[in-house]
Amino acid sequence: MVGEGPRARDLSYEAVILREATLDDEARFESIDLGQDRSPWLDEVCEIVSGLVAWRSDEEHRHLDRQVVVAEVNGEIVAVAAHELIEHDRLGALHEHRYLMVVAVRADYQRSGVARVVAESVFVEMQGDGVRTVRWLVHPRNQRSISSSRAVFPEADETHPPEDRPYASFVLAL
User: Fold this and answer.
1) pLDDT by residue (tens digit) across 83-118?
2) What is the pTM of this model?
């Protein structure tokens, strides 16, 4: 069952289609409902999602190979993920290491496993491209994402480095 309440429905994972985001998706990103629980971290995720097309197309950061992936069910976007190469101050873009900027799931598909399907699929593609590690940050108040990160990727190294405060940092070897 997907989600909770009257909008919950059965989901067949064979029905989830992952694809690269297109320019036509920009307006659809702005209208994705990520939930009613307004908090600073959710507001930040909403802002990130609404600006993903511009973020990916930023010429100044082209060397970071920014990627945006959407998950569709029945032609509707139900989740979006974005990632880029990690950049080192002296070494530049590190082609074997990526930063997962966001995995956001529409409110009526949260707790359905779609985030896991998207993240695992993106990680498999990264691994096929020679990526050795992926890093992501989670706000400590985002208990669902913290719990999910710990449960789905228990082998990920979780730290709370001072430069990332207040976020928890996860690093997964692929």
Assistant:
1) 999 999 999 999 999 999 999 999 899 888 899 999
2) 0.86
The CATH number of the domain holding residue 159 is 3.40.630.30
CA distance 146 to 134: 16
CB 82 within 8 A of CB 56: yes
Which H or E run includes 163? none
Q: What angle do CA 148, 149, 152 make, to 5 degrees?
A: 75
Q: Domain range holding 38?
A: 5-173
As for how many domains the chain has, the answer is: 1
Cβ burial 6-39 (10 Å sphere, 16+ → b, else e):
eeeeebeeeebeeeebeeebeeebeebebbeeee
Strand duo 133-138 + 92-105: pairing: parallel
Cβ proximity of 146 and 140 under 8 Å: yes
